[in-house]
UniProtKB/TrEMBL annotation, chain A:
It is a peripheral membrane protein. SUPFAM superfamilies: P-loop containing nucleoside triphosphate hydrolases. Residues 5-230 form the ABC transporter domain. Pfam families: ABC_tran. Belongs to the ABC transporter superfamily. Keywords: Antibiotic resistance, ATP-binding, Nucleotide-binding, Transport. The keyword Thylakoid does not apply. This is ABC transporter ATP-binding protein. It comes from Catenulispora yoronensis. It is found in: Cell membrane. CDD domains: ABC_DR_subfamily_A (cd03230). The keyword Nucleotide-binding applies. InterPro entries: AAA+_ATPase (IPR003593), ABC_transporter-like_ATP-bd (IPR003439), ABC_transporter-like_CS (IPR017871), ABC_transporter_ATP-binding (IPR050763), P-loop_NTPase (IPR027417).
């Protein structure tokens, strides 16, 4: 397994405040990595340093084998960047914008094919200022992938999407992965991270507090399950590390069917809120 | 993939001479700069022609000004063989250079920075030089277009005569080129002062004042001496003086403050402002806005 992106001890201060406080990060080639974290946790700062848009104060960074702070046009031709929402190039038509950006890259993809992939073929001749929020975001993605990047940065790509558009977008990202593209994604949507990411990293107050596969984050796979059922018209609840045995016992108690039975493992959201909650308290106590 | 592995192994021996050489950032080859520059030029011109509101403002403003001044102030200027209308026409040609370079670029670059277009471009392999080539095309189209309109109105309605002497056309070309370069560099430099899309007054207001003290709206020779001296520090006065030397009768030079066209000093002042503009650009140009971290 080769490494597409590697950071060690990444630090960035704004004034006295540390936006990034020693972040170590590895993203493997071909992987989709999701960076989660509350607002102000340093996600955008981290991503912009990795994209070569921002300087770091200290730490070592290698992205596609190059330090982004010393990168040139050859390196930029190998990455694709979808920034947070922006309304620019409002005087251009959709097709013109994609062709323009394609022409910057030595080995770019066919602009029409890219427009089809993001579902904007019908809008090719529409002025970008006339696009809806979701369409505009898909154009942003088109501009990010038209160069045929090896590594794609997506900063909150699906903000403002309706659920159907979000599903389509996930399909697009999965198809990019299957063609070998590495993806670093930041998002506020935990279902998005769970659906797309091979691994997620949780960034809180400038520190990466945990990195794991979504189904294993925070010991989620080993966490206690909560069993609920109804007894004498009341809802009962029991947390247990062995739900199967507990339900078997319940079943003998009820002589068969258990009324209103459900077994719930903590969701990614529960684990995430737990992680950022305990981190904040820890920070606050210092 | 093979290139990546190679680069990784180079990093392992970083510190050795070979590693440092391979990792050194390179400039894009000139062929690439020019190829992408042509793309940017087409994009810039397209954006310019599609911005109808700005286009009308840019092209109509000097015409309306000229028609207004030309209808209020008529007749021969005392002691010369030139008319007020002719002098205003040359002043407005000077103003076209300011509009097409300084004003156009200050607003365009500020708005591209504000809308994050610059930041987005920065993430691509587009060379910075290609971006500026595009801006050159935008300035050329805006400036030459305005001047063409101005010459048509000037010759048609204001009694302006086109020079027949080739040396005067030569003067026209170099004053235009050096003047437009100074204005463009200053425009890009000043764009950093405009922090949001509606902060245009910070550039627009000084330009208006500058045009007054430079004799665009009021005959320069009739301005009070201290005002003339202030005007002489800035490029607008010299641009207009250069245009007067192209389009007005030779005898008019005796009503200039120095009793002559001062082409040498004119070139020197405009060139100095090119340097000031360039330094301002190098010092302040940024691909991102100040509100963006």
């Amino acid at each position: 397994m080769t490494t597409a992106l590697r950071a060690r001890g990444l630090r960035k201060n704004y004034g006295d405040a540390a936006a990034l406080d020693g972040v170590d990060l590895d993203v493997a080639t071909g992987e989709i990595f999701a960076l989660l974290g509350p607002n102000g946790a340093g996600k955008s700062t981290a991503v912009e340093i990795l994209e070569g848009l921002r300087d770091r104060d200290s730490g070592e960074v290698s992205v596609l084998g190059t330090d982004p702070a010393r990168a040139d046009h050859r390196w930029r031709a190998r990455i694709g960047v979808v920034l947070q929402e922006a309304r620019d190039f409002t005087m251009l038509r959709v097709g013109e914008a994609v062709r323009q950006f394609g022409s910057y890259y030595p080995a770019h993809r066919d602009p029409d094919e890219v427009l089809a992939a993001v579902g904007l073929t019908e809008q090719t001749r529409t002025l970008t200022s006339r696009l809806s929020g979701g369409q505009r975001r898909r154009l942003d993605v088109a501009l990010g992938i038209v160069g045929g990047p090896e590594l794609l940065f997506l900063d909150e790509p699906t903000t403002g999407f309706d659920p159907a558009a979000r599903r389509q977008f996930w399909e697009l990202i999965r198809s990019l992965r299957s063609s070998g593209t590495t993806v670093l994604l930041t998002t506020h949507y935990l279902d998005e991270a769970e659906a797309l990411a091979d691994r997620v990293g949780v960034l809180v107050r400038g520190r990466l507090v945990e990195v794991a596969a979504p189904e294993r984050l925070g010991g989620r796979d080993r966490a206690e399950a909560v069993v609920t059922w109804e007894e004498d018209g009341k809802r009962c609840e029991q947390a247990t590390p062995e739900p199967t045995r507990f339900i078997a016992e319940l079943a003998t108690l009820f002589h068969g069917e258990i009324p209103g039975l459900s077994v719930v493992r903590p969701s990614l959201e529960d684990i995430y809120l737990d992680l950022i909650g305990s981190e904040s308290e820890h920070e606050g106590g210092r | 993939m093979s290139t990546m592995v190679t680069t990784d192994s180079v990093i392992d021996v970083a510190g050795t001479r070979a590693g440092a050489e391979a990792d050194r950032p390179r400039r894009a080859p000139l062929r690439e700069v020019w190829r992408i520059g042509r793309v940017r030029m087409a994009v810039e011109v397209r954006q310019l022609t599609r911005n109808t509101g700005l286009l009308i403002y840019t092209f109509a403003l000097p015409v309306v000004m000229l028609l207004l001044f030309g209808s209020i102030f008529r007749g021969r200027i005392e002691g010369t063989s030139a008319t007020y209308q002719q002098v205003y026409a040359t002043g407005m040609i000077g103003m076209c250079v300011i509009n097409g370079g300084l004003q156009n670029l200050a607003f365009a670059v500020a708005s591209e920075r504000h809308s994050k277009a610059l930041k987005r471009l920065r993430t691509t392999p587009m060379p910075a030089a290609s971006y500026f080539l595009g801006k050159v095309a935008s300035v050329l189209v805006a400036t030459v277009g305005q001047i063409a309109v101005m010459l048509i109105v000037g010759v048609g309605l204001m009694g302006l005569t086109l020079p027949t002497d080739p040396s005067r056309w030569f003067t026209f070309v170099w004053v235009l080129l050096v003047g437009a370069t100074a204005c463009s560099l200053l425009g890009i430099g000043l764009s950093g002062l405009i922090r949001s899309e509606n902060g245009a007054a910070i550039v627009w207001l000084p330009i208006m004042v500058l045009q007054f003290v430079s004799g665009v709206f009021i005959l320069f020779s009739s301005l009070p001496r201290p005002v003339q001296q202030i005007g002489a520090v800035f490029p607008v006065k010299w641009l207009c003086q250069g245009m007067r030397s192209v389009f007005l009768p030779e005898s008019f030079k005796y009503s200039e403050p120095a009793q002559g066209w001062e082409h040498g000093r004119l070139a020197l002042v405009l060139a100095a402002w090119c340097v000031v503009g360039l330094l301002l650009c190098l010092k302040t140009f940024s691909w991102r806005g100040r509100d963006d971290g």
